[in-house]
Amino acid sequence: MLRSNSCNVGLCILLAAIGFSGWMQAQTRSGIPAPQQESALAPQSSRETAVFAGGCFWGTQAVFERVKGVVATTAGYAGGSAATATYDQVTTETTGHAESVKVVYDPSRITYGKLLQIFFSVVHDPTQLNRQGPDVGTSYRSAIFYLDEEQRKISTEYIMQLDAAKVFRKPIVTQVVPLKGFYDAESYHQDYALHNPDNPYIMICDRPKIDALRKEFPDLFQEYAGR
């Protein structure tokens, strides 16, 4: 598989050139409802953490770092061991890791359920098994790594809600599993889309996610200004 640092740039460009739009359209899906069951905004400012895997972590981070109420994001690896949490090992697709993003947020400004809604609406296509568009392998799988029982319950019930409403043409395949460890990715992966806006992969595969966030969640969108 052709690669450039992380994601399949060559294939993404080829698919765009031949008019392959289904995957990109799936990531800008409109009208996905909010979770029916979730926590209210916290009465006081604090810090909580969520971890999501939705394909190449460049795009996942690019979305969440532009969400109001999110105070920090980190690209990394989850699902495997510390000993194999390096890019060179993860790309062998033998480590159990998924390219993931740790999202630190203020629960008085945004809820975990709203982060989930963004995750399912504009970050990725949750019906694709072990891939996202041109990126193929278990490291690109859809997963929610929950940190506590509340996150597990909200995530599980939300997936059931979306499947029951047939929001997607196919069943959601997102894993909901406990977080056993999160390991920061190499420095060159951090804020990759921000620092490389003209990269063809970012322009074709990730910029539409940012545009969709602006369109679908205008009250939550902010241009990245550093934190």
Topology:
Blueprint: H1 9-17, H2 22-26, E1 48-54, H3 57-64, E2 70-78, H4 87-90, E3 98-105, H5 112-123, E4 131-132, E5 135-136, E6 142-146, H6 149-164, E7 175-178, E8 182-184, H7 192-195, H8 200-216
Parallel strand pairs: 6-7
Antiparallel strand pairs: 1-3, 1-6, 2-3, 2-8, 4-5
Structure description:
By secondary structure, the chain is an alpha+beta fold. The protein has one domain: Peptide Methionine Sulfoxide Reductase, Chain A (2-Layer Sandwich), CATH 3.30.1060.10. Helix content is 33%, strand content 18%. It contains 8 helices and 8 strands; from the N terminus they run H-H-E-H-E-H-E-H-E-E-E-H-E-E-H-H. The protein has a 6-stranded mixed beta sheet with strand order 7-6-1-3-2-8, covered by helices on one side. Strand 4 and strand 5 form a beta hairpin. The chain starts with 8 loop residues before the first helix and ends in an 11-residue tail after the last helix. Mean pLDDT is 90; it is low at 1-5 and 17-23.
Low-confidence stretches: 1-5, 17-23
Number of strands: 8
Which geometry do the CA atoms define?
globular
Number of domains: 1
